[in-house]
Design a protein that fits this description.
The chain has 123 residues and is mainly α. The chain has one domain (4-121). The chain has helices spanning 4-28, 32-65, 74-90, 97-121. α2 crosses α4 (97-121). It is flat.
């Protein structure tokens, strides 16, 4: 099974590929606000995943050392999601709200697909 750093590295590669597709879509289609919303949402979603990876490492260290267990950064990730949506709401001419929300969820979709592919390969 992969550790969190390897999973996050794959997430970053997927994000860069997605951002390249969004840049192409933004430049060559009439749906600039949709592609910009997906890009902003994916950026903030990957940031949330990075926060989760950092907090899980800290959580694991606390458990192994027998120290008090801290939070997993739920409030910070929630605030980051609110910030992405606030950007989309405040600039509706540039960012599509629904695509921003979809972009926020894309890193978790990538994670789910990666787990399915890993499971199929290990059969």
């Amino acid at each position: 099974m992969l550790d969190l750093h390897q999973i996050f590295a794959m997430q970053k590669r997927a994000l860069f590929f997605l951002l390249a597709l969004c840049a192409l879509g933004w430049g060559f289609t009439p749906y600039q606000s949709v592609f910009a919303g997906i890009a902003v949402g994916a950026f903030f979603g990957t940031y949330n995943f990075w926060i989760l990876v950092r907090r899980m490492e800290k959580f694991d260290r606390s458990i192994s050392e027998g120290k008090k267990i801290g939070s997993l950064g739920t409030a910070l990730r929630f605030a980051s999601g609110i910030a992405a949506v606030a950007i989309a709401i405040s600039l509706p001419n540039y960012f599509h709200l629904i695509s921003t929300v979809i972009g926020l969820m894309l890193p978790y979709v990538f994670l789910f697909v990666e787990r399915i592919v890993s499971h199929v390969r290990n059969r």
